[in-house]
Design goal:
The chain is α+β, with helices and mostly antiparallel strands. The protein is about 15% helix and about 40% strand. A hairpin with a 5-residue loop joins strand 8 and strand 9. The protein is built from three helices and 23 strands. The strands form four sheets. Strands 11, 14, 15, 16, 17, 18, 19, 20, 21 and 22 form a ten-stranded antiparallel sheet that branches. The chain is globular and about 60 Å long. It folds into two domains: about 80 residues, Immunoglobulin-like (Sandwich); about 180 residues, Glucose Permease (Domain IIA). The protein starts with 8 loop residues before the first helix and ends with a strand.
Length: about 325
């Protein structure tokens, strides 16, 4: 059998040396590879603009990757984002008592050096009217015991309304909690026993029969239930990302604290507990502390007709 030719030692050494230089050059090339440019400025759209005080709004950010870190504020309150049809969508609210005029809505994003853009949102005045209400004078001029009770209750409700769960818990259009006529709309001031109350009505009152089931308008988690001096039997639901709904004056509470609620689940029955003149449901919506008109918010959820099931969650930060 013929023997294999032996490769000269010098040639082998040269081959190893050249290979080493090649590998080293790859490392140097990686060191000097161009750093990816930061994402370009996105398009930021605010709807509606101008908007009424007490109205919900939405901000649409186009041109960012779904996993891009993003944060925004309006009137000092955070805006959370979720993916929607290839864009990022966030809700905010112009509180019913917000100062009329121009307000900045600021969006910052990354990665890399923080970039920022600001949109001026114009809030218009809106007259919601005044209603006259007759109640027992003891529910207007509170006793020391009732004042202490309302103080303790306010601590619990304030904590519930400050909930800002990072994840969006609802999908699709909100539904009405009851089918009935609104007999006292959002934003009205009340003249209690002839004295004007400067605090506007922070919800919508549905005139329905006592015992009518109250349905959850969307998925969420029950964060507070109880019997309160003014609101009577009450339920508060966290829908995620600072969106809170509430239901007052119930005759019976069917939900429990911590319960995961699905759209259409029964929360309780319409009643006349608390400071009321008759049976009805008070339904309220807060967006990161801003009191907004519930029927208008429901219309907005119907308008976006969202379906985020195929999207990647966005990173929202406070």
């Amino acid at each position: 059998m013929a023997s294999m030719a032996k490769k000269p030692f010098g040639s082998l050494f040269l081959s190893i040396l050249l290979a080493s230089f090649f590998i080293a050059s790859l490392g140097c090339a990686a060191d000097f590879a161009p750093v990816p440019e930061p994402e370009g400025p996105p398009a930021v759209t605010v709807l509606p603009n101008p908007m009424d005080r007490g109205a919900p709004g939405r901000v649409v950010v186009t041109g960012l990757k779904p996993d891009s870190p993003i944060q925004a504020t309006f009137d000092g309150k955070p805006i959370f984002f979720f993916p929607h049809r290839g864009d990022l969508l966030g809700f905010f609210g112009a509180d019913v008592m917000i100062k009329v005029g121009d307000h900045p809505l600021t969006v910052t994003w990354g990665p890399g050096p923080e970039q920022r853009t600001t949109v001026t949102v114009t809030v218009k005045d809106k007259s919601y009217g005044v209603r006259d209400i007759k109640v027992p004078q003891s529910q207007v001029d509170l006793s020391p015991a009732d004042l202490e009770r309302t103080r303790i209750e306010r601590i619990a409700t304030t904590k519930a309304l400050a909930t800002q769960s990072p994840e969006k818990l609802w999908t699709g259009e909100f539904i009405e909690p009851v089918n009935g006529r609104i007999n006292s709309s959002f934003g009205r001031q009340s003249r209690l026993n002839g004295v004007l109350n400067t605090r506007p009505h922070a919800g919508a009152d549905y005139l329905v029969s006592e015992g009518t089931p109250v349905k959850a308008p969307a998925d969420g988690i029950v964060i507070l239930t109880g019997n309160h001096f003014f609101a009577g039997n009450s339920v508060y639901i966290d829908h995620g990302q600072g969106l809170i709904s509430m239901y007052f004056h119930l005759s019976k509470i069917e939900a429990i604290d911590g319960q995961e609620i699905k759209k259409g689940d029964i929360l309780g029955l319409v009643g006349k507990t608390g400071r009321v003149t008759g049976a009805h449901l008070h339904y309220g919506i807060y967006i990161n502390g801003a009191r907004i008109d519930p029927p208008v918010f429901r219309q907005m959820t119907a308008t976006i007709n969202s379906d985020e099931s195929t999207n990647i969650p966005a990173k929202s930060q406070l």
